[in-house]
Design a protein that fits this description.
alpha/beta; seven-stranded mixed β-sheet; two-stranded antiparallel sheet; 11 strands; 27% helix; binds S-adenosyl-L-homocysteine
Length: 271
């Protein structure tokens, strides 16, 4: 997809994921958009190297083609979506990513809803404070951390099986633990219908533009949950629409900003 607010820019010369995210931060601070603002979103994006999800200019803030008429969204768009959903991306939450494409955003979701694993943790004295639900076994200088307690669940639903397969490979190269502990999985299906098996969801993200808010997705949202979906016909203005299901089950929606996404299309599982 293209940029937000009708403009598009590139961060020429960004050489690493950290540089890219820092540039995003500074540019948006300057613009006072506050797109990337929370520590949790920042760490999820820093931990997820875009070069593992696209080999085309991964550190440029622009969408890139990933084949099958799909694109990996621009990093600022990923940041924007993560921030809007951040309060719903908590330990133990269930998340659905419709049109998961490259799997980049799906991996960020997984990082935000699960407890950290030892592979990501640098042993220091703070570990006892930040990870109270974990047991630590010290043996010959090796720290083994056994995860206890709940972990979130993230499902990416993608209708092009080649993309679903590639996104699984991307995440495996990134961090096999994300797939191994059952936190994240990609399924092939028509995302317009959601993924009933994992419902209800605390947050649903749609990475392609629908003509109208898909009713099945609203149905599969938990009370108190949030759905983020670009709405608009191909070639016409699209609005990133935030749909909130309140604790009493009533639904409200709000147009957040104009965007440009590839269309959410009919099922084509056979490809
Ligand atoms: N967030 C993704 C966006 C990928 S582009 C990323 O940044 O990588 C949108 C994706 O939606 C494409 O991969 C496309 O194949 C998928 N898509 C379109 N219509 C769909 C449908 N009905 N069901 C599931 N996936 C769909």
């Amino acid at each position: 997809m293209c940029g937000l607010f009708g403009h598009r820019w590139t961060t020429h010369g960004a050489g690493s994921q950290r540089q890219l995210v820092e540039q995003l931060q500074s540019v948006y601070r300057m613009l006072e958009r506050g797109i990337l603002k929370s520590e949790r979103v920042l760490s999820a994006m820093l931990a997820t190297d875009r070069a593992l999800y696209t080999d085309r200019s991964p550190y440029t803030d622009a969408p890139q083609p990933i084949g099958q008429k799909a694109t990996i969204s621009a990093p600022h768009m990923h940041a924007y979506a993560l921030e809007l959903l951040a309060d719903h991306l908590r330990d133990g939450a269930s998340i659905l990513d419709v049109g998961s494409g490259s799997g980049f955003l799906t991996a960020c979701f997984a990082r935000m809803v699960r407890h950290p694993l030892v592979s990501e943790i640098e042993w220091n004295s703070a570990i006892h404070m930040v990870l109270p639900p974990l047991f630590h076994i010290l043996a010959g200088g090796v720290v083994l951390v056994i995860q206890v307690g709940s972990t979130g669940r993230v499902v990416g639903v993608e209708h092009v099986w080649r993309l679903a397969r590639r996104s699984t490979e991307n995440v495996r190269r990134d961090d096999p633990n994300l797939l191994g502990n059952g936190c994240l999985r990609f399924v092939v299906g028509d995302g317009v219908l959601g993924w009933a098996e994992g419902a209800p969801y605390d947050a649903i993200h749609v990475g392609a533009a629908a003509c109208k808010v898909p009713p099945k997705l609203v149905e599969q949202l938990r009370n108190g949950g949030r759905l983020l979906v670009p709405v608009g016909r191909p070639g016409r203005a699209q609005w990133l629409t935030q749909v909130d299901k309140k604790p009493d089950g009533s639904v409200s929606s709000r147009k957040m900003t104009t965007v440009t996404f590839v269309p959410l299309t009919e099922s084509r599982h056979s490809q």
